[in-house]
Amino acid sequence: xxxxxxxxxxxxxxxxxxxxxxxxxxxxxxxxxxxxxxxxxxxxxxxxxxxxxxxxxxxxxxxxxxxxxxxxxxxxxxxxxxxxxxxxxxxxxxxxxxxxxxxxxxxxxxxxxxxxxxxxxxxxxxxxxxxxxxxxxxxxxxxxxxxxxxxxxxxxxxxxxxxxxxxxxxxxxxxxxxxxxxxxxxxxxxxxxxxxxxxxxxxxxxxxxxxxxxxxxxxxxxxxxxxxxxxxxxxxxxxxxxxxxxxxxxxxxxxxxxxxxxxxxxxxxxxxxxxxxxxxxxxxxxxxxxxxxxxxxxxxxxxxxxxxxxxxxxxxxxxxxxxxxxxxxxxxxxxxxxxxxxxxxxxxxxxxxxxxxxxxxxxxxxxxxxxxxxxxxxxxxxxxxxxxxxxxxxxxxxxxxxxxxxxxxxxxxxxxxxxxxxxxxxxxxxxxxxxxxxxxxxxxxxxxxxxxxxxxxxxxxxxxxxxxxxxxxxxxxxxxxxxxxxxxxxxxxxxxxxxxxxxxxxxxxxxxxxxxxxxxxxxxxxxxxxxxxxxxxxxxxxxxxxxxxxxxxxxxxxxxxxxxxxxxxxxxxxxxxxxxxxxxxxxxxxxxxxxxxxxxxxxxxxxxxxxxxxxxxxxxxxxxxxxxxxxxxxxxxxxxxxxxxxxxxxxxxxxxxxxx
Length: 660
Known about the structure:
- One of its GO terms (cellular component) is chromosome.
- The structure is a single chain.
- Helix content is about 50%, strand content about 10%.
- The strands form four sheets. The chain has a five-stranded mixed beta sheet. A four-stranded mixed beta sheet has the order 9-13-14-10. The protein has a three-stranded antiparallel beta sheet with strand order 6-8-7, with helices on one face.
- The longest helix has 23 residues, at about 250-275.
- β7 (about 240) and β8 form a beta hairpin.
- It is elongated, with a radius of gyration of 37 Å.
- Among the domains are: about 5-110, Conserved hypothetical protein from pyrococcus furiosus pfu- 392566-001, ParB domain (Alpha-Beta Complex), CATH 3.90.1530.30; about 300-355; about 435-535, no CATH class; about 550-635, no CATH class.
- The chain is an alpha+beta fold.
């Protein structure tokens, strides 16, 4: 038998909650933030569905429709909303007082309403614009949401009908359907959809997004934003989206042409400024391709009189800026401005004291690429055909070190990586020097007097005693192992700097310095000299016997001051990592197992292994892990340009060779 409930209108002020309402124990359901959309809808469209009420103690208790009741009370309380007071009447249906299934009725009201299909919702929003003449702003007001949220829904409702039909028929997932909204052109959507489904394969959202990327560049993409003005000036087509950031520059070829022109102009400007022989541009810097290129670096030069004068001016200004930056009351903006000025001055000073040789400029150049949302210049590059072989001939097979290109599985150290490793080794050596006070003090004094009193030939170029801290450059300074940095910081904290008072004149500082104990002076000299260590690999005894022997004395094991980490392993090829694991560390089985893994996974394995050697390692493996470093970095090793493979290349049939 069907039960019917009589219609009636009831003043909002006469409505109360019903104890049998199944949501009565979930008050959070009626929190203002949870009914905001419903409140907005009722304010614009009115109450579309009557409330089920039952007479209790002279009031009308809301048995079904508690959220609508809560929204009505919110409208009364909202003084900005017109037309809703406690006396405003709303449509209801009256449940008889003797009805004995009130709880079941309330439950049925809440669970029998099927949630709206997401695609229906998207399409309904689209129809509200196309048929009803609504705007995103009016729709947002109706449903109590933001204009951006409405536009987001509308984008899905405006996807090509064939694709929406496929999602409705569960041929593709809802997420896959949404991926097509990455491009606002329905024609582009349809073409990609047909191309990806012609063979009947499973369609994924990621695949769709990747395919749509070839159909243009979003204006919110860093490249799109960079070229947009020129692109539109040349009449490039733009597919407009409801959300501006999703609009697409449709002519990908024109986008790339403009980008390459801008990159080329930047490279040419750098070429002219620095005097290189050639300039080139590439959208993405291909490290695999560039591995065959060499690189030259500027060397120290003797500044002329004008340059020396400017350097003195820069030094004076830097000292002044340093004092200003020590002001604890300085605001962040002012401090950052001073910091940027210091950077600019230091760079200018370096440029006045460094230069490329004429020979290097004649064969090297600059490439501009797009990286991290900006133009990046790669300077001093030498094309493979211009690199010099050991015997002096030029040939296309020469690599960055002037030798024949090695086997892909053989570990070589590209010039950029080699330079950074030299920097890391210099930092480790500096830490060792700061910790060996007496030896470093003797070395400093010996160099100081020998350079003056001996034949005039410097006893070593490995350290500078010129009252100037050595500038160290590294491509990944924020990612290197921090052991040496921590050791040097600890040495600095142990220094007695009571004499170093900027408010005193140098003569007064000198008096205070002379009063220090000999041990404190040794610490200061060791620390200062350690800060001058120049970048370089292990010294060759025949070329620099002094530093060769000294380094062995104070740093017999570089691993006491430096540990290889992910930053280093990320710059190695996958085959190199497997070779290190299998041959250098004796972890042949691990190398075979990891051969099918991604490079990222192998890097993570190596990083964890060197951070804390696994308990499962044998004594020999543990010793190998504890001692391993690139051979030219270890003091007892050989110089970089003389380095030879530490083991023969495995036979092709070996497990490690097959893994690599």
